[in-house]
């Protein structure tokens, strides 16, 4: 017989109603509720003693369980004693089973031995992803940092592309208009049957352009390759795309280079005449461009030149005197740009700082420098002459007019001969015997020395000066002294200076 069968037999033969409550409670305290080996040992005892044992009948007055009293009442009502005793015994056994039979199962060992499942929903390869939030839930620092890294990467890429495009646009615009490029001549040979991309490559290799792609787009929109004439060309590295293509369309071959020197003190009219004499550009085309052409060459000083209808030439004084190389038939915009570039390069930041210190504008400085340039025959006399003008400008009550002869010469020689209708208001705006203070604008193109003299006048008490035909200068503090000097200077020929013109 197996252990299972012995256990079942023990349960069937065990009479719970024969054990009173006190014995049951002691037994529960004395041994475990589920003592399997003890049950086996007790089951091995002889069964006869249990069958022969008959429990005593309890008296009606003794404290018996309610289930044991009810059968007696039923017996009095006519129910068979045997049947009642059997039912009562069965109910008692069930009640005692419910009250005393317990099974305690310790399942802690089972659960302790079962490993807790590990979860991983994100956070990369970090072994501690559950602790830092990168495990369950998938919304920890691991996943968040990944998204931030991607966002920063996208932002960096967008910014990089934007900066590149902006830089490319600026470079393309500068290259297209020939701005801020080194001034150098390049001789190239344009072969026959060249496509636009091949021409762009040729120009870039020779340093004429910098952006071959931009040139291809520009040239492709306005030109056909077959319309460009092959040949030998002399190009400038700061030519605009349009100037390069215009040369290719016209078929200009190797150009004749000319060198021209423009002296300090030349007027705009004289400069225009010299350009025409050397076949660079006509006088009319040059002056008309200065009045009506596109002057957007990127030089800041141009915005400081005032617009005044009384000025005969707005850009008088700003065509810088120097020696230049031009080509016969060169574009007028290139000619003007060369002059303005020279002015921008020679008038330094230190000069602008000194203007601000003295409370003078750029145009006032150039206007005064042009008068000094005309009045002083040499550099040594420029600072003393400047000192006389400054003394008068500082004392407007005593000397409201500068009374410089050279301003009258400008009206007579450079304005009146070239206008069809007399303009007395314009004349008076330049005539320093009439206008107060400086004239309306420069009267010639001053050099660097004259500009520096205008900013560094010699200190003196002189308010007058006069020069003779030999270039000697006479200075005076009073009008009486000055009159004597004028008489002395006139003995040597023509004179000019301050207050030498008699009405």
From TrEMBL:
<protein>
    <recommendedName>
        <fullName>Endolytic murein transglycosylase</fullName>
        <ecNumber>4.2.2.29</ecNumber>
    </recommendedName>
</protein>
<keyword id="KW-0961">Cell wall biogenesis/degradation</keyword>
<dbReference type="GO" id="GO:0005886">
    <property type="term" value="C:plasma membrane"/>
</dbReference>
<keyword id="KW-0472">Membrane</keyword>
<comment type="function">
    <text>Functions as a peptidoglycan terminase that cleaves nascent peptidoglycan strands endolytically to terminate their elongation.</text>
</comment>
<keyword id="KW-0812">Transmembrane</keyword>
<dbReference type="Pfam" id="PF02618">
    <property type="entry name" value="YceG"/>
</dbReference>
<keyword id="KW-1133">Transmembrane helix</keyword>
<keyword id="KW-1003">Cell membrane</keyword>
<feature type="region of interest" description="Disordered">
    <location>
        <begin position="20"/>
        <end position="144"/>
    </location>
</feature>
<keyword id="KW-0456">Lyase</keyword>
<dbReference type="GO" id="GO:0008932">
    <property type="term" value="F:lytic endotransglycosylase activity"/>
</dbReference>
<feature type="compositionally biased region" description="Basic and acidic residues">
    <location>
        <begin position="20"/>
        <end position="42"/>
    </location>
</feature>
<dbReference type="InterPro" id="IPR003770">
    <property type="entry name" value="MLTG-like"/>
</dbReference>
<feature type="compositionally biased region" description="Low complexity">
    <location>
        <begin position="55"/>
        <end position="78"/>
    </location>
</feature>
<feature type="compositionally biased region" description="Gly residues">
    <location>
        <begin position="135"/>
        <end position="144"/>
    </location>
</feature>
<comment type="similarity">
    <text>Belongs to the transglycosylase MltG family.</text>
</comment>
<dbReference type="GO" id="GO:0071555">
    <property type="term" value="P:cell wall organization"/>
</dbReference>
<feature type="compositionally biased region" description="Basic and acidic residues">
    <location>
        <begin position="84"/>
        <end position="100"/>
    </location>
</feature>
<feature type="transmembrane region" description="Helical">
    <location>
        <begin position="148"/>
        <end position="170"/>
    </location>
</feature>
<feature type="site" description="Important for catalytic activity">
    <location>
        <position position="375"/>
    </location>
</feature>
<dbReference type="GO" id="GO:0009252">
    <property type="term" value="P:peptidoglycan biosynthetic process"/>
</dbReference>
């Amino acid at each position: 017989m197996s252990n299972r069968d012995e256990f079942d037999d023990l349960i069937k033969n065990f009479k719970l109603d024969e054990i009173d409550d006190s014995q049951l409670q002691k037994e529960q305290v004395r041994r475990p509720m589920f003592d399997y080996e003890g049950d086996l040992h007790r089951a091995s005892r002889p069964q006869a003693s249990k069958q022969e044992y008959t429990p005593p009948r309890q008296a009606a007055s003794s404290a018996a369980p309610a289930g044991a009293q009810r059968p007696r009442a039923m017996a009095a009502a006519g129910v068979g004693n045997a049947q009642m005793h059997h039912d009562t015994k069965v109910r008692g056994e069930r009640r005692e089973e419910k009250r005393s039979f317990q099974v305690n199962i310790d399942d802690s060992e089972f659960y302790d031995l079962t490993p807790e499942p590990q979860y991983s929903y994100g956070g990369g390869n970090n072994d501690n992803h559950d602790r830092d939030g990168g495990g369950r839930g998938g919304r920890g620092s691991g996943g968040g940092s990944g998204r931030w890294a991607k966002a920063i990467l996208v932002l960096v890429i967008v910014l990089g592309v934007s900066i590149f495009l902006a830089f490319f646009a600026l470079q393309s615009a500068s290259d297209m208009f020939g701005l801020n490029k080194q001034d150098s001549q390049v001789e190239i040979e344009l072969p026959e049957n060249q496509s636009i991309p091949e021409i762009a490559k040729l120009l870039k290799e020779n340093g004429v352009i910098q952006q071959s792609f931009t040139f291809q787009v520009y040239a492709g929109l306005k030109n056909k390759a077959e319309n460009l004439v092959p040949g030998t060309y002399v190009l400038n590295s700061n030519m605009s795309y349009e100037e390069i293509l215009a040369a290719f369309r016209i078929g200009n071959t190797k150009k004749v280079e000319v060198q021209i020197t423009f002296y300090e003190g030349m007027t705009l009219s004289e400069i225009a005449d010299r350009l025409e004499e050397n076949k660079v550009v006509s006088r009319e085309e040059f002056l008309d461009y200065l009045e009506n052409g596109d002057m957007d060459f990127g030089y800041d000083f141009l915005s400081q030149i005032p617009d005044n209808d009384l000025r005969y030439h707005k850009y008088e004084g700003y065509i810088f005197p120097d020696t230049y190389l031009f080509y016969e038939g060169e574009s007028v915009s290139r000619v003007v740009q060369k002059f303005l570039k020279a002015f921008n390069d020679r008038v330094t930041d230190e000069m602008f700082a000194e203007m601000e210190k003295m409370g003078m504008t750029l145009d006032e400085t150039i206007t005064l420098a042009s008068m000094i340039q005309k009045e002083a025959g040499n550099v040594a006399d420029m600072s003393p002459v400047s000192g006389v003008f400054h003394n008068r400008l500082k004392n407007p009550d005593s000397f409201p007019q500068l009374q410089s002869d050279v301003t009258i010469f400008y009206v007579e020689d450079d304005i009146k001969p070239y206008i069809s209708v007399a303009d007395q208001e314009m004349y008076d705006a330049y005539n320093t015997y009439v206008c107060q203070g400086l004239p309306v604008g420069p009267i010639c193109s001053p050099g660097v020395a004259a500009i520096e003299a205008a900013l560094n006048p010699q200190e003196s008490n002189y308010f007058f000066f006069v020069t003779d035909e030999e270039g000697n200068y006479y200075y005076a503090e009073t009008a009486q002294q000055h009159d004597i000097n004028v008489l002395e200077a006139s003995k040597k020929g023509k004179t000019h200076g301050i207050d030498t013109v008699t009405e």
